[in-house]
Amino acid sequence: MDSLKTTVNGFVRGLSDSIKGFVLIFHYDAEVPEKPRSSPTQETNLAKRRAAQQAEKKQRQASQKDETKVTHRIVQCCVLNGVVFGLSLVIFNYLLLPMLKQVLSLFLAEGAGAVWHYARPTLTAVFDMLWVLPLFVLSRIINTIWFQDIADSAYRQRQGRPQLISSLSKLVADVLISIFIQLLFLVQANLLMLLPIMGINVVVGGVHMCLLNALYAFEYRWFNMGWELYKRLSFVEENWPYFMGFGLPLAFITMYPSSVYVSGCLFALLFPVFIISANEADPVLYPKGYPLQLFSGVVGLSNRIIQSLVTKRQALPNPPAPSRR
C-alpha cells in the first residue's frame, strides 16, 4: 500500500511540476533570487564593500541578460514554430486546398471529384517537398540551438554557473552516445507500438514516450550539473513514477497528430516550457520501488555496437609508411 501511494504521489507530482512551466514562464523574470547582502559588521573595509557592490552589480546585469535571453528565445520559438511553420500548415490544408477544390468544382462540375482525387496528393507532396521538409529540417537545427540557450540561461539565473563534465573528450562522447541511445530508445518505442495487442501497445509505447520526453527536458539541467549519461538514465529508471507523470502532457500532445510534421511542430512549440519546468522542479524519489529498466536494452545494444566498431577499427591494418628516397 505504501509503495502504491508513493508511486501515485510521484506520478501526480511529476504531472503537476510539468505544467507549472506554463505559469512560471509569464513571471519567470520577476522571480530572480537576489544575492544576500553582506553584514556591515563583517565587512567594514571600504574597499571590500566596493568590490562586493561591483560583484553584485555584475551579477545583476548577468541575471538581467539571462532573463532577456530566456524570454527572447521563447518568443522566437513561438514565432518560428507556431507562426511560420504551424500557420503555414494550417493555411495550406484548411484554406488553400479547400479553395482549389471549390475552383475545380466550378470549372469541372462532373469530373471535379476524380481530378481532385489525384490533384490533392500531388499538391500535398509538392508542398511537403519544397516547403515543409526544408523548413522542418532548418527549424530542428535552429530549435536545438535555441533550446540550449534557454536551458543555459535559465540554469544560470536559478542555479548559478553550470558545472559541465571536466574532460572535453568525455563531454563530446557523452553528447554523441546520448543522442544515439535516445534514437535507439525511440525506435524501441515505435516497435512496441506495432504490437498486435490493442491497448497494450499504446500503453507500453506511451510509457516509453513519457520517460523519453522527461529525459529530454531534464537532460539540459543535469548536463549543466555535470551528470554523466548513465547517471541520468539510472535516475530516470529508478524514479520512473515522477518522470512518467512529468513527460505525460508532452507525450500525449505529440502522439495524437498523425503527421510527423505537426507532431514536431507542437513539440518544438511547447518544449521550451518544459525546459523551464524541469529547471524549477524537485523530483520525487522512489527509493522503495523497483527500477523500470527500459533503457537497459538500448544501452546494452549501443555498447555492443560501439565496441564492435572500435574492434573493427583496431583490426584494420596500418597503412604502409611512405618510402624515402
From TrEMBL:
Domain of life: Eukaryota
Keyword Membrane appears in the UniProt entry: yes
Family: Belongs to the EI24 family.
Feature: compositional bias, Basic and acidic residues: 55-65
Name of the protein: Putative etoposide-induced protein 2.4-like
Transmembrane segments: 73-96, 125-147, 168-187, 193-218, 239-255, 261-278
Keywords tagged on the record: Membrane, Transmembrane, Transmembrane helix
Its membrane topology: Multi-pass membrane protein
Subcellular location: Membrane
GO cellular component, as recorded: endoplasmic reticulum; membrane
InterPro entries xrefs: CysZ/EI24
Keyword hit for Transmembrane: yes
Originating organism: Penaeus vannamei (Whiteleg shrimp)
Main location: membrane
Annotated stretches, region: Disordered: 34-65
A Pfam family that the UniProt record links to this protein: EI24
Protein's GO biological process: macroautophagy
